[in-house]
């Protein structure tokens, strides 16, 4: 097999991440966001909703799936953008200033530069002008918990929420709720909080949902594998523990392992290595569900729950 390039491997990874299967909380998320779209009219105080949960439960997927209902024509900074989306980045290991946060939000409107002497009020006014030009009704902010880690970034967030003529959807980890707890200024701007949880992979319904997602993700992989068989599908679910973000990263790493070695298929060993790299502390023989024992078969943790048959899964 011809060895794939790094760009081709990254493209497969992006396709895996783009797969969306309706989440058990999907209807609730769609309803809350649709209500925001009705209430978030220009000239009104911003409404807000929070989508929270641990990393990888599908918060961002759910928001983007909902936003995909509203086509956007974005070829210039003044094009119509009814639902804008940004991700707060750069917060690992340090606190973000309001300039960092503002630059990420401005990027959603095609305008990223924050001048050194611009005040919070100046930046807020510029964001509002861009939103008015593009007729934005809702702004989704991914990794929103990072906006409240420093005092001046929190001050910027407060000003944004107090005066924004569009609705806000904060997407973040549960620490976002902890930061907002007891802060009346923030709480009165939030209409609804929806906490997404991992799939219960030990239940029949949870396993069916996860295998459905695996079926769609398998189509993104250019290399054959045992995905689709009971043994490997269940091992993937055990490794991911119902977390669809972890499941996606596992498939990405397993595919990358096979591609870099020039293999013509994704082997169990590739999944075994991927699992160990996701969580190095779980690499012991009894804990890695992809490590074959006694010449084959599933490890004890990969066996179905008591009383469940393969047909039910």
List the helices and strands and how they pair.
Blueprint (H helix, E strand, L loop, with lengths): L5 H13 L7 H14 L8 E5 L6 H9 L15 E5 L10 H10 L12 H14 L4 E5 L8 H13 L3 E6 L2 H6 L3 H4 L4 E4 L8 H15 L11 H11 L3 H17 L7 H11 L35
Parallel strand pairs: 1-4, 1-5, 2-3, 3-4
Helix pairs in contact: 1-11, 4-5, 4-6, 10-11, 11-12
Describe what you observe in this structure.
It contains 12 helices and 5 strands. The longest helix is centred in the C-terminal third of the chain and has 17 residues, at 244-260. The two termini are 34 Å apart. Strands 2-3-4-1-5 form a 5-stranded parallel beta sheet, sandwiched between helices. With 313 residues, it is an alpha/beta fold. It folds into 2 domains: 6-19 and 200-303; 26-195, Rossmann fold, CATH 3.40.50.300.
Into how many domains do the coordinates divide?
Answer: 2
CATH topology of the largest domain: Rossmann fold
Largest sheet geometry: 5 strands, parallel
* CATH-defined architecture of the largest domain: 3-Layer(aba) Sandwich
| Rg from alpha-carbon coordinates | 22 Å
Indicate the overall shape.
elongated
């Amino acid at each position: 097999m011809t060895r794939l390039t790094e760009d081709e491997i990254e493209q497969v990874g992006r396709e895996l991440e783009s797969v969306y299967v309706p989440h058990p909380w999907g209807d609730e998320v769609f309803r809350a966001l649709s209500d925001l779209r009705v209430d978030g009219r220009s000239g009104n105080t911003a409404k807000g909703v929070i989508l929270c949960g641990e990393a990888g439960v599908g918060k961002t997927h759910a928001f983007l799936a909902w936003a995909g209902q509203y086509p956007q024509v974005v070829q210039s900074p003044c094009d119509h953008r009814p639902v804008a989306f940004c991700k707060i980045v750069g917060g690992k290991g340090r606190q973000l200033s309001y300039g960092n946060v503002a630059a990420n939000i401005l990027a959603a409107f095609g305008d990223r530069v924050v001048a050194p002497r611009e005040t919070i009020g100046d930046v807020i006014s510029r964001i509002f002008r861009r939103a008015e030009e593009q007729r934005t009704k809702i702004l989704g902010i991914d990794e929103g918990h990072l906006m409240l880690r420093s005092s001046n970034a929190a001050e910027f967030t407060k000003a944004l929420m107090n005066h924004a003529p569009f609705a806000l959807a904060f997407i973040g980890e549960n620490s976002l709720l902890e930061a907002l707890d007891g802060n009346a200024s923030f709480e009165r701007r939030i209409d609804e909080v929806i906490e997404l949880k991992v799939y219960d992979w030990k239940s029949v319904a949870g396993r069916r949902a996860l295998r459905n997602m695996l079926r769609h993700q398998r189509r993104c992989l250019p290399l054959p594998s045992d995905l689709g068989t009971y043994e490997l599908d269940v091992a993937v679910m055990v490794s991911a523990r119902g977390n669809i973000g972890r499941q996606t990263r596992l498939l990405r790493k397993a595919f990358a392992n096979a591609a870099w070695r020039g293999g013509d298929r994704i082997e169990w060993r590739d999944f075994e290595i991927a699992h160990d790299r996701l969580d190095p502390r779980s690499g012991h023989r009894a804990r890695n569900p992809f490590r074959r024992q006694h010449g084959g078969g599933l490890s004890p943790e990969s066996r179905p729950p008591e009383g469940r048959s393969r047909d039910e899964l």
